[in-house]
Amino acid sequence: MIKPLRLAIAFVAAIGLASGAAAQGRPDPKEFKPPPVLPKMAAPSNLVGMVATVSDEDVLLLDLSSGGRVRIVMRPDVAPKHVERIRMLARQGFYDGTIFHRVIEGFMAQGGDPTGTGQGGSKLPDMEP
Fold this sequence. Notes:
Cyclophilin, two-stranded antiparallel sheet, 4 strands, 17% strand, alpha+beta
């Protein structure tokens, strides 16, 4: 009888330790500090196959609520219909005040959906690929 009791106590203790360790790994959202804004950098001159100059019309500036700014270079040579749609929506203010609904740190951020769900919100029809 003592052996099962010890096993049960060890199991409960292990769960308590594991949950405490897991809780320590989660950042406290109240203590979040946005990363510093990086200075503007010139593109490396040794990029093979890249266009050295970019038209101002192909640059979308995204001002963050934290005070930072993201410079997005659009590629109409690769996706002309999508770039034109983004330009049109940006000019109409469609993206103003929208949130990032999905962020994978160090990889990507998805946003631009006025509903904040990732399901869209534009009244325009879907585009053909």
